[in-house]
Amino acid sequence: MKKRLERISEEIVATYGNVTPKIHHLDRSALPSREVVINIIEALQEIIYPGYFNTNGIPTSQAITARVQERIEWLYENLRDQIFKSLRHGRLLGEDDCIPSERTADECAIAFIESIPDLRCRLAKDVQAAYDGDPAAKCIDEIIFSYPGVYAITVYRIAHELRRLDVPLLPRIMTEYAHSRTGIDIHPGARIGESFFIDHGTGVVIGETTDIGNNVKLYQGVTLGALSFPKDSRGRIIRGRKRHPTIEDDVVIYAGATILGGDTVIGQGSVIGGNVWLIHSVPPGTRVLQEEPQLRIITPEDIEQTIGAGKVQA
What we know:
- The protein is an alpha/beta fold.
- It has helices at about 1-20, 35-50, 65-90, 100-115, 115-135, 140-145, 150-165, 170-180, 300-310; strands at about 185, 190, 195-200, 205, 210, 215-220, 225, 245, 250-255, 260, 265, 270, 275-280, 285-290.
- The protein has two domains: about 20-190, Orthogonal Bundle (serine acetyltransferase, domain 1), CATH 1.10.3130; about 195-314, 3 Solenoid (UDP N-Acetylglucosamine Acyltransferase, domain 1), CATH 2.160.10.
- α3 (about 65-90) crosses α4, α5 packs antiparallel against α7 (about 150-165) and α7 (about 150-165) runs antiparallel to α8.
């Protein structure tokens, strides 16, 4: 049995150099740690929403400065390390030409930390939008603690800021972690304005080049996606083009709607009804509704009468 296991191990290792594309990360610089990235998200939750996600007793106003300073120092050290690994990813071990310096990682980490006050202001507006937009919400605490949409938006805004600083890998790791927890898939490259609310949330997809204005509300199952993927002469997808729609201010999009295409613009103040499939622009103030389908309701009595008349075999 031991020899068989050794043989199987050798066969597996042999595939590391033969399988295309290569799906290993050997002999290269260390990648970021997914576990540490998740810990960074949790530390930022504690900083952004003090008193909700703390793990070190009940904070008070008098003690909060020291606690925030402690968390910020931890965040700086760990975020700098993960950024440095992200900037170096893919490089061969010992390859020192043109590699990003630790100073670059330092500057990115500090720039991100300096953005936290603005992030808090933006997220406060998102939380308020959730409270104003959901009559079932009893209080702000309930929203911060439990709403998956608010969690997904929080992680998105963190990831988007890192992407704006040209940090690779980390933003996508963060938003895909939020995706796995909430069922809400927001690409960190999307640009989303203030007071954004996702109600219920499961199944929402927001693509990389989506532009969303202020005071926009989405319900579950909404897709803001690409209509097609242009390819070059070799059949490879052309990246970097706008593929996803633009949603202007004060738009409401109901459950199950699908809006596709980089040239598609949903005008300010429009309402997109449930289950609508839309691939072209609409002007401001438009209502786009799916016609009510014809329903045929067959009661148990109808079934018995049909069988009794010999129209259907039992």
